[in-house]
From TrEMBL:
The organism's taxonomic lineage, starting at the top: Eukaryota, Viridiplantae, Streptophyta, Embryophyta, Tracheophyta
Record SUPFAM superfamilies: Glyceraldehyde-3-phosphate dehydrogenase-like, C-terminal domain, NAD(P)-binding Rossmann-fold domains
Xref: InterPro entries: Gfo/Idh/MocA-like_OxRdtase_N, GFO_IDH_MocA-like_dom, NAD(P)-bd_dom_sf
GO MF terms, alphabetically ordered: nucleotide binding
Domain GFO/IDH/MocA-like oxidoreductase: 138-261
Domain Gfo/Idh/MocA-like oxidoreductase N-terminal: 6-125
Similarity comment text for this entry: Belongs to the Gfo/Idh/MocA family.
Protein name (Swiss-Prot/TrEMBL): Gfo/Idh/MocA-like oxidoreductase N-terminal domain-containing protein
Pfam families for this protein: GFO_IDH_MocA, GFO_IDH_MocA_C3
Top-rank taxon: Eukaryota
């Protein structure tokens, strides 16, 4: 089996784990080998509800998945407060780590995870799926084209959805002991990650939250906004708003000196088989300012696999390279996660201190 598909173990039966079970089944180089929950009854119930093969090993504890010698890699859809404990344990057992976002409660905890992964020589990746969609590579081509796009000047993003009443009572994302980052961690992670992606993963020089923060009675952020600045004179700025309190929106606008790029479905494409964005190059106002000289170009990018299966496929390919050919883990994924976490921490610091300017 050394040259066969990567055998995944899933630790935790969160709702997002349903999506990853399907993704593992679709990826040509991966297979689901084991599933662990806090009780064997919950693992069995999850397996039955999601039509898992009888060949999948079911365990009544997280540790049993890590003790299974046939598990190559683990996917952890656990509450953020449990990430450090179980990701470190997985790495120390020699399991490659695919970790749901946000990666950690803060950069200090993430560093513990990354240090454990590097010490054991295992691959780390967080579960930001949109980075693996072919649309993202196409957008990179345009943003990197200095002639058509120009110098990066401004970025704006919103990431929002309005869940039902039960969400605000029972969901882990509104409980301070489970996911204390709330909407900032769950949705702001996408916005901050998109800003860093557009900026070539250059860290901003400073960030500041805006005074529109909404918290629940337990102090968890339900809605917030922030501005990120690059350069000593703040030559480039990025603004985001994330919220559990508004209609679903996942917009991203990236504006350069010569062109602009827009999309409405950053994290989850509106359609699974393809995704699009609009690019407007070199537009000016026509005479009398009654229109634009250029209409936006709609760029449609098809995909044979959904983005979550492409993520599994890429992660599994890296694991196969390490397992079969002695390759080193690809460090860019941990570096991207750590920079996203550093900026998220700075926004959280600004929020907690009354929206002060925080320098990175």
């Amino acid at each position: 089996m050394a040259d066969g598909p990567v055998r995944f173990g899933i630790i935790g039966c969160a709702t997002i784990a349903r999506k990853l079970c399907r993704a593992i089944a679709l990826a040509p180089n991966a297979t689901l080998h084991a599933l662990g929950s806090r009780s064997i009854e919950k693992a069995r119930s999850f397996a039955a509800a999601n039509g898992l093969s009888g060949a999948v090993k079911l365990y009544g504890s997280y540790g049993d998945v890590l003790d299974d010698p046939l598990v190559d890699a683990v996917y952890l859809p656990l509450p953020t407060s449990l990430h450090a404990t179980w990701a470190v344990a997985a790495a120390r057992k020699g399991k490659h780590v695919l970790l749901e976002k946000p990666a950690a409660v803060d950069a200090a905890e993430l560093d513990r995870i990354l240090e454990a992964c590097e010490a054991s020589g295992v691959q780390f990746m967080d579960g930001t799926m949109w980075l693996h969609h072919p649309r993202t590579a196409k957008m990179r081509e345009i943003v990197s084209d200095r002639g058509r796009f120009g110098e990066l000047k401004s970025i704006n993003s919103i990431s929002m959805f309005a869940p039902n009443r039960e969400f605000f009572e029972d969901n882990i994302r509104v409980k301070p002991d489970l996911d204390s980052l709330g909407a900032l961690g769950d949705l702001g992670w996408y916005c901050i990650g998109a800003f860093l992606w557009a900026a070539g993963y250059r860290l901003p020089s400073a960030v500041s939250a805006l005074p529109d923060v909404t918290r629940n009675s337990a102090g968890v952020v339900l809605s917030c906004s922030a501005v990120l600045y690059w350069g000593l004179a703040h030559e480039t700025a990025a603004t985001f708003h994330c919220s559990f309190l508004a209609h679903v929106s996942m917009d991203l606008a990236v504006v350069g000196s010569n062109g602009s790029l827009h999309l409405k479905d950053l994290a989850i494409p509106i359609e699974e088989g393809s995704a699009s964005f609009e690019f407007t190059p070199g537009a000016k106002f026509v005479d009398l300012h009654i229109g634009w000289s250029v209409k936006p170009e709609k760029v449609l990018v098809p995909t044979e696999l959904p983005q979550e299966a492409l993520m599994i496929q890429e992660f599994a390919s890296l694991v196969q390279g390490i397992r079969n050919s002695g390759c080193s883990p690809e460090r860019k994924w941990l570096e991207m996660s750590r920079k996203t976490q550093l900026v998220l921490d700075a926004v959280k610091k600004s929020i907690d201190a009354g929206c002060i300017l925080v320098h990175l």
